[in-house]
Amino acid sequence: MDWLPLLSTLAGAAIGIGSTLIADRNRWKREDVKDGLRLRLDVYTQYTTTVKVLGETLRALAEREHPSDDDRARALREAFRDSGLAVASERMWLTAPEPVVKASNSVFHCLRRICDGYIDGTPLNSPEDRARWEARGTAAARMRKLMREDLGVGSLAERHSPLLDDPTHPATP
User: Fold this and answer.
1) Count of structural domains, the chain
2) What is the rounded distance in angstroms from the CA atom of residue 3 to the CA atom of residue 15?
3) For residue 16, is it within any domain?
4) Which of 37, 57, 119, 126 could form a disulfide with 73 if both were Cys (CB 3.0 to 4.6 A apart)?
């Protein structure tokens, strides 16, 4: 019996099966990377949106008249608690790389200081308030930069939140 045709057939089949498995594995890896990017984009979008909405809410509550200091404090605490920032933060801790987690945690603590400042009676647009907002803006800019790098979309030349003392920007109080 001639073994050469049988061996060449088996070798061809092994090569075919092996190359198919390698191609499938490479395709699976690419899809896994895409899924990870989509997940992080969703987490980052949820977090940055929550941060923005909470900041606007805290500022609006600080501007509003309240029957008492206790009512003001209660409203601010409820806004912080009900904002969804805790859930967004936990998602960040579970899915983002460490530099992004640290940056997002910094933004979280900046917002906490803003809220606590308003609870303690810090007037809106006072030097203390402006310094807290500037710290939040700086922390948020760093966080967004790291998020964009992680997603592979590059950095932006323009800052998302203008400096509070920039007289050329229309959002400056």
Assistant:
1) 1
2) 18
3) no
4) 119
